[in-house]
Every structure is written in structure tokens, then in C-alpha cells.
Amino acid sequence: MKYTAALLAAASVVYAQQQAGEWQQCGGIDWTGATTCVSGTVCTEYNDYYSQCVPGAASPPSSLPRLGGVNTAGYDFSVATDGSFNGTGVSPPAAQYTHFTGEGANLFRIPFAWQLMTPTLGGPINETWFSNFYDKTVQAALASSPNSYVIVDLHNYARWNGEIIAQGGPTNDQFASIWTQLAQKYGTNERIIFGIMNEPHDIPDVATWVDSVQYVVNAVRGAGSQNFLLLPGSSWASAQAFPTEAGPLLVKVTDPLGGTSKLIFDVHKYLDSDNSGTHPDCTTDNVDVLTTLVSFLQSNGNRQAILSETGGGNTASCESLLGNELAFVKSSFPTLAGFSVWAAGAFDTTYVLTVTPFANGTDQPLWTTAIQPNLP
Ligand SMILES: *[C@@H]1O[C@H](CO)[C@@H](O)[C@H](O)[C@H]1NC(C)=O
Ligand SMILES: *[C@@H]1O[C@H](CO)[C@@H](O)[C@H](O)[C@H]1NC(C)=O
Ligand SMILES: *[C@@H]1O[C@H](CO)[C@@H](O)[C@H](O)[C@H]1NC(C)=O
């Protein structure tokens, strides 16, 4: 018996050195066969017991280009910070995408209310809304330039109707459900970045939140997603809190695709007196905060972040300070992969942080002076 077991073990060692073919098993608990895949495929984990070589996944190692652009808001209008929502959403004007790409923008963040995408928690995507509204907007943004990237942004503050994911509210499965459905729609388009969740805040247990993030990462990969993923921390995705609060835990999140180059951190930072993004005047350029963030990312595996919300009023102070900030972001590539300013889209031209172009096609002064010069 011992002899037979030894033979079997020896045989499996030899077999493990071969590569698994397309659609063959390449891992899982008790799996003793090949764990690497033939070229052109990638070993993709579906669950603890089964991984399979999925074709097309092993495209050349991909990395993000330098990104710069704008949030086009509207489908998030009237999502409250407690994750409740009774609205209808408003479509961002499609013409803005060619307007901004014509000036060098290549990143559009498109926020949406969880309740608009899946009217029932954990239920199916509303296909009518998706095809007539959200996806139409996403396709307009993608079509505006062959180089444009879109962040699909679930804008719900880690909450559904007042309750926090996995901490009294939705289960991790319900959270993962919307993303596995979006992975089935957008999972092979590398120009679509999944913004897993906008601005988690007042999270009782940050480690539990990071477990929810890992849960979604595993789920979208299991559903075939190869997208870059934006992982949010705590305290409203604060760039300032990141190195000491969620960052040390989020850097441990793993990617079933292997490596961490597709796990990008999502950070926000405003420039007004209370960092809320509600005042027209700016009081800081955040270069100190971003310098600390960059050194944290570099000393924790050379990771990357995107400043997916920042902005200011159309005032002299913001034109100067936002310009400094975005120049710093640009010079910190690739650690800081880029930025998207808050906000254009369905906001009118009088909103305090508006960068919505005027009806005559002219840009807001903040756009022209502080943002446009720092686009890629
Ligand atoms: C939506 O309606 C519910 C129930 O009436 C209410 O508690 C909640 O505050 C409302 N949310 C918003 C964003 O208006
Ligand atoms: C689905 O979306 C359509 C189009 O916006 C809307 O009319 C309908 O009420 C939505 N269905 C649900 C269940 O919310
Ligand atoms: C466009 O409209 C804005 C806002 O009304 C105005 O300030 C600006 O002068 C106009 N520009 C041109 C070129 O007409």
C-alpha cells in the first residue's frame, strides 16, 4: 500500500508540472493536477473546490494609462448618505463625453443608485433601466474616444436603506449579487473599471468591511471579470485616513487573477475647510495628504490609487489650489493613476462644484484653469 501511495504521489508531481488546457481544472481543495494553465488562458477560481483555465484572460499584462477626467452625475441624484433612495435618476447628457475627450479627458466616473440598478436588494438588474439608461450612458462614454475609461460607480455609502453591508444590513451575498451581474455584462471590457462602493462611512468594523470587499473581488472574478477594481476604504474613502485606517487591511486583499495590479484603491479628497466638497472656496491643495498616501502605497507593494472625487468651486482659491493638487496627481503617476473631478453630468451650471459646460459650449473657469492643463 505504501508503495502504491508513493507511486501515486510521484505521478501527481509529474502531472502537476504539466499545464492544464483550456477549460480544464487547475486548482481547488484536494486538487493534485496541474495548477498552471496553457498560454492564452488564466487559472480562475470559482470556489474553494474548483478553478478552471479560462481563455482570453492571459492577455498581455495590463496596466492603466495615466487617467484624468470627470464624474458625470445624475443616476445617483437623491441617494442619501444613509443609502436610501426614492428618486428616479437623471441621465447625464451624452454630448459631454465627446466634449471632454476632445479636450484630453479619458476617465468618466458614472455613479448610480443601487436601488435603480436592482430595485430589490439582491435581486436581478432592471434590464429596462439598464439598457435604456445606464448602459446607454456608459456606451456613449466609451464611444467618445478609443482611449476613454469608465468607472461604474455603485454610489451607496456601503448601505441599502440605512443599513450597512454585513454589519446589520445587506449580506455579502446580496452585495456581491449586483457585481456578479455587472461582471456578466462588462467583465471582459478592460476600459470599464468597477467602483465597488462609493464612500463607506461610519463603519463600525473596518476589518469586516474589508472582508466584504474581498468577498466581492472573489465573486466578480468567479463571474469572469477581468476588470480593474476600485477598492474603497472608510471615512468617506478619505485619502487622508487611508494610510492608517483601511489601507493596512485593504493591501491584503487578494485577486484570484493573481497579483494585485488590478486592485486599485479608491480615494477621495476635497479642498474646502471641512473636506466636504460643499463650499465654493478652497483652503488646501492636499499635497501633504497625497504625499503621505503615495509613500504608503509605494512602501506597501507599490500599489496604485485613483482620486475618483475631488473638486472645488469656480473661485480664485480653487482655481489655484485644485491646479496644484492635480499637477501633483499627474506627477505621481503611476502610484496615483489619475483623477476624476466632481462633477459634471446632469448638474446644472450653478451647482457649487459644477464643471458642467455652459449651453454655448464654453467650459467653467475651474475646468479651463485647473483641470484641463492636468489632463493626460
Ligand atoms: C425615502 O423614503 C423613506 C421612507 O419614506 C425615508 O425614510 C427616506 O429618508 C427617504 N430617502 C430619501 C433619500 O429621500
Ligand atoms: C425598471 O426601469 C424602468 C425604466 O426606468 C422603470 O420604469 C421601472 O419602474 C423599473 N422597474 C422597477 C421594478 O423599479
Ligand atoms: C458662454 O456662456 C457663458 C455663461 O453664460 C458666458 O459667461 C460666456 O461668456 C459665453 N461664451 C461665449 C463665447 O459666448
UniProtKB/TrEMBL annotation:
Belongs to the glycosyl hydrolase 5 (cellulase A) family. The lineage of its organism: Eukaryota, Fungi, Dikarya, Basidiomycota, Agaricomycotina. Residues 1-16 form the signal peptide. The keyword Cytoplasm does not apply. InterPro entries: CBD, CBD_sf, GH, Glyco_hydro_5, Glyco_hydro_5_CS. This is cellulase. It is an enzyme of class 3 (hydrolase). Residues 18-54 form the CBM1 domain. GO terms for molecular function: cellulase activity; cellulose binding. PANTHER family: CBM1 DOMAIN-CONTAINING PROTEIN, ENDO-BETA-1,4-GLUCANASE A. It comes from Dichomitus squalens. Keywords: Carbohydrate metabolism, Cellulose degradation, Glycosidase, Hydrolase, Polysaccharide degradation, Signal. Its EC number is 3.2.1.4. GO terms for cellular component: extracellular region. One of its GO terms (biological process) is cellulose catabolic process. It catalyses: Endohydrolysis of (1->4)-beta-D-glucosidic linkages in cellulose, lichenin and cereal beta-D-glucans.
